Automatic annotation (TrEMBL):
PANTHER family: UPF0718 PROTEIN YCGR (PTHR34184:SF4). The keyword Membrane applies. Pfam families: ArsP_1. It is a multi-pass membrane protein. One of its GO terms (cellular component) is plasma membrane. Its main location: membrane. Keywords: Cell membrane, Membrane, Transmembrane, Transmembrane helix. The chain crosses the membrane at residues 14-30, 51-73, 93-115, 127-150, 156-179, 222-243, 255-272, 279-298, 318-341. Belongs to the UPF0718 family. The keyword Transmembrane helix applies. It comes from the Bacteria. It comes from Anaerobacillus arseniciselenatis. This is Permease. It is found in: Cell membrane.
Length: 342
């Protein structure tokens, strides 16, 4: 890494840490500051701070889980193992990937580093995408929270889980056909590229302590992912505070606009998939059932803070195609669900 890259990385790290410290100070010292006659903080700024801190507190445990799982994959799972257990057929691997996503209790906050690590280990891009969009919805924790939030309307639960499973496979297939000629869509740092070349020609003579290696990789990825989470949470907090929800709610009078509005809400609010069902339930009296389902399916697949993280780890073209694909597929499928089933 040259001097310019080192300086740029240092500036980004310092800005992320400074942003977090400023909002923590405001959060813990709000009462003291508001009683002062010298400082008058607008309510909107306090609201931004509160939402920002709540997103950070909600997401950090899952980021920790994600980077720890990512580190375990890095140390204990070899490229040969992934190639051995993946079906040889490109499209045939989609269904097992969707089933695998239903096993792990990983939300959208944690799934990005896990998928990135799996792809680096040799998992095909389109299979990683299935895991990326499916796991945050299909896991047991989300099933339980959705069941509890909509225990009087089980249609929402089964529609959410069924759509997530089918659409994860469909989105993975679309990504396969779009990027099958150029599957390398990750951003690689210079250190990673050098390390990749070195490991191809040099075999270590002595194995390092795997526990230490795991902790090292987890800490490294946590600080890398954390700064992008902070940036995404800050942007989401700004949107939640200054976006005029009454205008969007007025648009939710018919099926098309209601579905679109709820998808916008899901993207902007950037809720954790383990908790979004309770927020969705609060909209049940104002929006249609199908638009609520759109909120619950689209949000865990694509949201504002996830977009920031993905832009840092994947090529911009891939992220834009991914978001467009997910948006079109979810919107179309929810409308079909409304017309033929609900």
């Amino acid at each position: 890494m040259n001097l310019k890259e080192s300086a740029s990385s240092l500036v980004k790290d310092l800005l992320g840490v400074a942003l977090l410290l400023v909002f923590l100070l405001l959060f813990f010292n709000y009462d003291r500051i508001t009683t002062s006659s010298f400082i008058d903080i607008p309510t909107s700024i306090v609201n931004v701070n509160t939402i920002f801190i709540s997103i950070i507190i909600e997401a950090f445990p899952f980021i920790l889980l994600g980077v720890f799982v990512s580190a375990l994959i890095q140390i204990y799972v070899s490229e040969d193992t992934i190639q051995k257990y993946l079906p040889k057929s490109a499209l045939g691997a989609l269904f097992p990937a969707a089933v695998l996503g239903a096993i792990f209790p990983i939300c959208e906050c944690a799934i990005v580093p896990v998928v990135r690590r799996l792809i680096k280990k040799g998992m095909p891009l389109h299979v990683g995408v299935v895991f990326l969009v499916g796991a945050p919805i299909l896991n047991p924790v989300v099933f339980a929270s959705t069941f509890y939030a909509f225990r009087n309307n089980p249609t929402v639960l089964y529609s959410r889980m069924g759509l997530a499973f089918i659409l994860a496979i469909l989105i993975g297939a679309i990504i396969y056909f779009i990027f099958r000629k150029n599957t390398d869509q990750l951003k690689w740092s210079r250190d990673e590229l050098v390390g990749k070349q070195v490991t191809q020609v040099i075999t270590p003579q002595k194995k390092r302590n795997r526990v230490k290696q795991t902790m090292y990789h987890a800490a490294d990825e946590f600080f890398m992912m954390g700064k992008y989470l902070i940036a995404g949470a800050f942007i989401a907090a700004l949107f939640q505070t200054y976006l005029d929800r009454s205008i969007l709610q007025a648009l939710g009078t018919n099926e098309y606009s209601a579905t679109f509005v709820m998808m916008v809400f899901a993207y902007v609010l950037s809720l954790c998939s383990e908790a979004d069902a309770f927020v969705a339930a609060s909209f049940a009296n104002n929006f249609t059932t199908s638009s609520i389902i759109a909120f619950l399916v689209y949000g865990p697949m694509v949201d504002l803070k996830n977009t920031v993280m993905m832009l840092a780890l994947f090529k911009t073209k891939f992220v834009l195609v991914f978001i467009t694909t997910v948006t079109v597929v979810v919107f179309s499928s929810v409308l079909l669900l409304e017309f033929f089933i609900l």
